[in-house]
Amino acid sequence: MEQQIPDRIRIKDIAIMAGVSVGTVDRVLHNRPGVSLASAEKVRKILKEMNYQPNMYASALASNKKYHFVCLLPKHNEGEYWSDVEAGALQCMNEMHDFHITLSMVYYDQYDIDSFVKSIKLVMDKEPDGVILSPVEEDNTKKLTDMLQEKEIPYVFIDSNIDNLEPIAFFGQNSSRSGALAAKMLLMIEPGIKEVVIFRQIYIGRIGTNQQNNRELGFEEYMRKNHPDCELSTIDLAMNNKEHDMEVMRKYFERHESVTIGLTFNSKAYLISEYLQELGKSNFRLIGYDLLEQNVEFLKNGNNIQFLIAQQPHQQGYRAVTSLCDHLIFHKEVEQINYMPIDLLCAENIDYYTSLNK
Fold first, then answer.
1. Which helix (H) or strand (E) holds 202?
2. Which residues contact 19 (CB under 8 A, 6 or more apart)?
3. What pLDDT score was predicted for residue 27?
4. What are phi and psi of 248, to 5 degrees?
5. Which of 16, 97, 109, 293 could crosslink 79 through cysteines, CB 3.0-4.6 Å?
6. Tell me, what DSSP letter sits at residue 99?
7. Residue 287 has what pLDDT?
């Protein structure tokens, strides 16, 4: 006689069809021991025939298991790029509170490798179930990820990715294409441009972050291919030493008076604009990155900054926590590479964008 499959499949229904107890079905569903091979095969056969899909959300809600995630981010001030990443992660944690999730923050100086190395112990001491981090260069990032893999702790990269490592997910821009977009916009602003200056941020000999370096490589590749006669020059700024930076910029513009356009691949476009204003370079056009409050203010007021390229940091933090929940709690497959939109913003559309992404 053909079995009737109920509209709402219960564990009790499976037990009746398989001729076993409810406890046996529960042990098979959760891969727990104490079930004979014959009984397990009966249950799995019924599960397959009924295409049974367990309600993972209900199971997670009923579980008393607690999950502690750690988020390792660069040190930052309120209103800066990383504060939006942190806000997104905390928002997701609060929304998932019913699933017994807690989230701790650990910070490092992104321009001081020793600071990142010291933070590794802080992360591991918290005995996390999952880790979200913004990686530095490969060797030192691997010191942490090797420890996590040894303990089978999943980790997620945000902002930048490292090809040779294996996070369960990455959330950030395709930095090379982002740099290419900056080049394309620059050539649209001034098609016959002869020289462009790149403002770099230097700290103890380290040139920016992974993301910034890859943006610059994408920019240079696009320029070589599409406008090879354009000269690319660079200005290395300390960013924490105004006197030094002003002197470096003053000397550069004494030698390159005709240069009126440039870009920076870091988030401190507003600071460069301040320097340009003090040097009387009000006609200089600048492309920068990220929606820091100061960057937005300078963009809207027409102070040198023509365009900002944004990458939805709030969503990066939010989705990073979501991916750990999907992997650990709901046992769902997680997409590994998740490129964020490359958003091009100007004074005319910035208000609409910021209102949608609060």
1. strand 195-203
2. 42
3. 83
4. -60, -45
5. 293
6. G
7. 97
Strands 261-264 and 305-310: unpaired
The boundaries of the domain holding residue 25 are 11-54
- What's the confidence (pLDDT) of residue 5? 43
314 C-beta neighbours (distance < 10 Å), count: 19
Residue 305: strand pairing partners: 286
Helices (H), the chain: 11-18, 22-29, 37-49, 56-62, 81-95, 113-125, 138-150, 175-189, 210-226, 242-255, 269-278, 293-301, 313-328, 350-356
- Per-residue pLDDT reduced to its tens digit, 67-94: 999 999 999 988 888 999 999 999 999 9
Query: Which pLDDT score is estimated for 115?
Result: 92
CA dist 233 → 31, 122, 191, 220 (Å):
61, 40, 18, 11
SS3 206: strand
What are the tens digits of pLDDT across the range 127-182?
999 999 999 989 999 999 999 999 999 999 999 999 999 999 999 999 999 999 99
CB-based contacts of 23: which residues, under 8 Å, 6+ apart?
Answer: none
- Eight-class DSSP state of 36: -
pLDDT of 1: 37
| Three-state secondary structure call for residue 215 | helix
Same domain as 327, residue 296 = no
Contact, 186 vs 215, CB < 8 A?
Answer: no
pLDDT digits over 296-333, tens only? 999 999 889 999 999 999 999 999 999 999 999 988 89
Residue 290 lies inside a defined structural domain of this protein: yes
Q: Both 41 and 156 in a single domain?
A: no
**Do 246 and 155 fall within a single domain?**
no
Within this chain, do residues 286 and 267 fall inside the same structural domain, yes or no? yes
The predicted pLDDT at position 259 comes to: 95
Specify whether the CB–CB gap between 70 and 131 falls below 8 A: yes
**Tokens 């996070």 sit on residue:** 167
Cα distance between residue 123 and residue 43, in whole Å? 42
